[in-house]
Amino acid sequence: MSKFLNEFKEFALRGNVLDLAVGVIIGGAFQGVVNSLVQDIISPIIGLFANKDFSNLVMTAGGVELKYGSFITALINFIIMAFVIFLIVKSMNKLATLGKNPEVAVTEECTTKVCPYCCSEISINATRCPNCTSEL
Ligand SMILES: [Zn+2]
């Protein structure tokens, strides 16, 4: 049992699982916003043109009720969610490539140098190596 718990802890403490959990929570909260946007703002506007409450549109065919109004509402929800997620993924990709900017990497490397006596990485301004105490 403790082995199982340890495995679960290892799994849960991995960064990507935490990222995933945050993503799911934000996604859930965000879905509420999109639902409200569609149901409370977009549907009434479309309803203005259709001259009736859009999300409650029902078609009766052979005694079966087809709630196509709420289906179209769900469809609009999906399109908006997909579009926003596309925008988020696009901007994330842009941020990821910004982090890999070669100019940034060069300026980062310029803050250290390699000690000629012990070959360890030390500050570029050091006059004495902190690892082997040699004067530079
Ligand atoms: Zn050294």
From TrEMBL:
Q: What residues form the membrane-spanning segments?
A: 12-34, 68-89
Cellular location of this protein? Cell membrane
Which key words tag this protein in UniProt? Cell membrane, Ion channel, Ion transport, Membrane, Transmembrane, Transmembrane helix, Transport
What membrane topology does the UniProt entry give? Answer: Multi-pass membrane protein
- Leader peptide range in chain numbering: none
Q: Which PROSITE patterns match?
A: MSCL
Query: InterPro entries of this UniProt entry?
Result: Mechanosensitive_channel_CS, MS_channel, MSC/AndL
Pfam families recorded for this chain? MscL
Functional description taken from the UniProt entry: Channel that opens in response to stretch forces in the membrane lipid bilayer. May participate in the regulation of osmotic pressure changes within the cell.
Would you identify the family this protein belongs to, as annotated?
Belongs to the MscL family.
Q: How does it assemble?
A: Homopentamer.
Name this polypeptide is given: Large-conductance mechanosensitive channel
Organism (species): Intestinibacter bartlettii
Q: What is the lineage of its organism?
A: Bacteria, Bacillati, Bacillota, Clostridia, Peptostreptococcales
